C-alpha cells in the first residue's frame, strides 16, 4: 500500500535529488550533459507550476507523482520512484489508481516519455499506453478509456433482418 501527500517546500530537496537520481542519465543521453545550475533553475521554475505529491510507503518517502486534469484527460506530468523501490509494484499501483479514475470519468490518460527511456516505455506499453505523437525528445502516449456500448444508454437494440 502507498499513500500520497501534497509536497511542501520542505520536500523540494527530496524531489530534486530524486529527479537527479532517476533522470540524470536520460538527460545526458538526450541533451548531452547535466548542468547542475541549469537543472536547479529549471526545477525551481517547474515546481511553482506543478503540484507534486509525495508517494509514501510505510512512512517513507519513496517517490513523487504529479498529474493534471482537464475535461478530456488526466495527464501524468511526472512520476519518479527511488531506485531501491522500483520494480516492487508501487508505480503500477499509482498508475492503476490514476487510470481507474480516468476510466470512471470516461476520459483518457496521457503522458510523455523521453525517447531514450526504454525502461519507462516498456512499462507504459505494459499498462496499455499507445504512442499518439512525438516531439524531438519525447514520445506522447495515451490510454483511452474502455468504453462499452452500455455506456451509451441512448443506443437502442435493433432487429436485424437476416439474409436468406
Question: What does this protein structure show overall?
Answer:
With 164 residues, the chain is an alpha+beta fold. The protein has one domain (3-151): 3-Layer(aba) Sandwich (Aminopeptidase), CATH 3.40.630. Helix content is 35%, strand content 28%. The protein contains four helices and seven strands. It has helices spanning 12-31, 36-49, 90-104, 118-126; strands spanning 3-6, 53-57, 60-69, 73-81, 108-114, 130-134, 138-143. The chain has a seven-stranded mixed β-sheet with strand order 1-2-3-4-5-7-6, with helices on both faces. The model has no long low-confidence stretch (mean pLDDT 91). It comes from Methanosarcina spelaei. InterPro entries: Acyl_CoA_acyltransferase (IPR016181), GNAT_dom (IPR000182). One of its GO terms (molecular function) is acyltransferase activity, transferring groups other than amino-acyl groups. Residues 2-159 form the N-acetyltransferase domain. This is N-acetyltransferase domain-containing protein.
